[in-house]
Design brief:
alpha/beta; Rossmann fold; 24 helices; binds adenosine-5'-triphosphate; membrane; transmembrane transporter activity; ABC_transp_permease; ATP hydrolysis activity
Length: about 625
């Protein structure tokens, strides 16, 4: 791989905004130069260290805020956490006189506050903005309650040393902030966990369906955020020599401004630690400059608020630009030329021929891979599925059809571990299985392409393909990281084996055509050793060429020994690819037979409930003749 292509890969592999970061770095340099020229003592080592010191708290908090925003979440309560943890730490430091007890008290307090936010966001299922706005008020109030509204001081020298120690003149908090920031940035960019955060921010539903445990990932993020606030509060309390409920006022404003200014999109799914670093530096320089200018506190508030609004405005403009450039690119559908150009579907053309699919009628299906029996699921008072009973053999394509609301999606979501059944059993290779989530089903060998296209538009093709099953390696034989080289190789090979022509493995999926996106989702499902592939309406939004490609891939998966379930409303698709057809009506399987034993008309009637199920099936010879009609 050339250096240029590695650089290009980086651009797509890490959803960020390099141009914004460059612009921001320039703004920061201009601010430094302006303040340096305007104020005599601005360019001094001691002022530099003061800026670093002040910025260290923002930098530590910015790691948590960056992770949360990338995943599409936010925490407005960090100012309240700051105050509450500070007074708790101070009280423990004063009462115990033991530095370890004080530090542990601060970290545990941070963990508990973070966990509270995480659990509230997970279970209340309302905007994290609102949830953390509420906890912000509660935490602030508690800080006054715990401290009786007064500052707490009288610490041991050892505790104060923690905040004021210097190593080679560099304050310890600055060193801790630097180490944490580098570690956090590295984790976000280079690990499977970091990739999953981008995936959750890009399309949480897709990430969930791919097997990412979204809810707990978010709870863990809030816990981490609380822990980081614990570090901030402990260091600041030690440095100031007192804990006070007034601390942390408008801290969330500083942190969010730095992070959003640094290019982390408020909508989630994008951002880069380098940008956040520059954002933090800019806020630090700005704050210091405003103090040098002797502006009153309220002017500082106004300036920072305006900068936040500007940053949000820039974020919106970047979002519009991105959307416009995606529309402008209007990618060409890539596929093979139509084998029967101009041939109108109709008399004398079987559906299989119409889509150019070869059907080997001599092939016998293998043993039963999946058997479901009496599966049922209700949502409140709605019985989405009453009796899902059918089986799929290895090497067989079973088409699941039914009217809107018949329960098809519910049935396949039960099989793929998205929902748990209220009743019934699922057997895979003759053994009963129960799945706690999509990842369990994937591990058992069931791959699903859901109707709502389980792809993350902000991630590249390769990253979408590996999501939930990321290849890993050990950096320096020690640190576990994501193996992006292996991801690109795996993607290239998988696409090639399926005859899918996509050249740029790192192109963000949001920039692909609908057909190409569908190809990526399907390619992810077609991994080696897969036992059952489920495709929910895979051709719904596709043209003839793309439909043929998808059906060919489904057939290929069956020929390779997998069982395939394909849901479709398009009768021609069903007759082109199915070995067997299962009709679902009002949540019940009402018909299950070989495709040769049913005509188009009868199938339509069965789906719509216009025909009794026990009417005699066709003679196979007769049905083969009628198949294309
Ligand atoms: N999460 C849910 N909450 C409440 N009701 C649901 C839920 N999921 C499905 N249903 C209801 O269950 C019934 C079956 O829905 P399902 O999506 O499984 O049908 P379908 O056959 O896939 O329909 P379509 O072809 O329109 O996609 C519908 O009445 C639907 O409204």
């Amino acid at each position: 791989m050339s250096i240029a292509s590695v650089a290009a890969n980086r651009r797509y592999l890490v959803p960020g905004e390099p141009s914004r970061r460059t612009g921001l770095a320039l703004l920061c340099v201009v601010l430094v130069a302006y303040f340096g020229i305007s104020f005599d003592n601005f360019f001094t080592v001691s002022n530099g260290l003061t800026i670093l010191m002040n910025v260290s708290a923002i930098a530590i908090a910015a790691i948590g805020a960056m992770f949360l925003l990338v995943s599409g979440n936010v925490d407005l309560s960090i100012g309240g956490q700051y105050a509450l943890i500070s007074v708790i730490t101070a009280q423990f430091a004063k009462d115990s006189g033991n530095v370890v007890v004080a530090v542990l008290a601060g970290l545990v307090a941070g963990l508990v506050l973070g966990l509270t936010n995480g659990i509230l966001v997970k279970f209340m299922k309302i905007s994290p903005l609102i949830v953390t706005l509420g906890t912000m008020a509660v935490f602030k109030g508690l800080a006054y309650l715990v401290s009786d509204g007064r500052s707490v001081f009288g610490f041991s020298d050892a505790f104060i040393f923690l905040g004021r120690a210097r190593i080679n003149e560099v304050p310890l908090p600055v060193i801790i902030a630097g180490v944490l920031f580098v570690a956090g940035g590295f984790w976000l960019l280079r690990t499977a966990g970091g990739l999953r955060l981008f995936a959750i921010g890009g399309n949480a539903q897709a990430a969930r369906l791919t097997g990412v445990n979204v809810d707990w990932a978010i709870v863990r993020l809030y816990v981490l955020n609380g822990l980081l606030m614990g570090v901030v509060a402990v260091l600041t309390t030690a440095r100031l020599g007192s804990g006070t409920p007034q601390i942390g006022t408008s801290f969330e404003l500083d942190v969010l401004t730095a992070v959003i200014l640094g290019g982390v999109g408020f909508a989630g799914g994008s951002g880069h630690p380098a940008g956040v670093f520059v954002g933090v530096a800019t806020i630090g320089v700005l704050s210091s400059g405003l103090i040098f200018a002797g502006l009153e506190d309220w002017w500082q508030q106004i300036s920072k608020g305006l900068v936040l609004l500007l940053a949000l405005g820039a974020d919106q403009i970047a979002e519009h630009r991105r959307a416009r450039s995606v529309r402008r690119e209007a990618p060409a559908e890539q596929g093979e030329p139509d084998p029967t150009p101009g041939a109108p579907p109709g008399l004398g053309v079987s559906a299989a021929d119409e889509y150019g699919l070869d059907r080997d009628t001599s092939r016998q299906p293998g043993p039963v891979v999946l058997r479901v029996d009496g599966l049922a699921r209700r949502f409140g008072s709605v019985f989405a599925l009453r009796d899902g009973t059918f089986s799929v053999r290895a090497g067989e394509v079973v088409c699941l059809v039914g009217d809107n609301g018949a329960g098809k999606s519910t049935l396949i979501k039960l099989i793929s571990g998205v929902y748990r059944p209220d009743a019934g059993r699922i057997e895979l290779d003759g053994k009963q299985v129960g799945f706690g989530g999509p990842i369990d089903a994937r591990r058992a060998g069931i791959e699903t392409v859901h109707q709502d296209l389980a792809v993350c538009p902000n991630l590249g093709v390769a990253h979408n393909l590996i999501l939930g099953d990321e290849p890993r390696r050990r950096m320096f034989g020690l640190i576990p990281v994501r193996d992006d080289g292996a991801a690109v190789t795996r993607t290239r090979e998988r696409l090639a084996s399926l005859g899918i022509t996509l050249t740029d493995m790192n192109r963000s999926v949001g920039r692909l055509s609908g057909g190409q996106r569908q190809s990526v989702a399907i390619a992810r499902a077609m991994k080696d050793g897969v036992k059952l592939v489920i495709l929910d309406e895979p051709t719904a939004a596709l043209g003839v060429t793309q439909t043929r490609n998808v059906l060919r891939i489904a057939r290929q998966a069956a020929d390779n020994g997998a069982g395939v379930i394909l849901i479709s409303h398009d009768i021609r698709t069903v007759f082109a690819v199915a070995d067997r057809v299962v009709v679902l009506r009002l949540g019940q399987v009402v018909y299950d037979d070989a495709i040769e034993r049913v005509t188009h008309t009868r199938l339509l009637h069965l789906m719509a409930g216009l025909e009794a199920v026990d009417e005699p099936a066709l003679d196979p010879a007769e049905s083969t003749v009628l198949k294309g009609h």
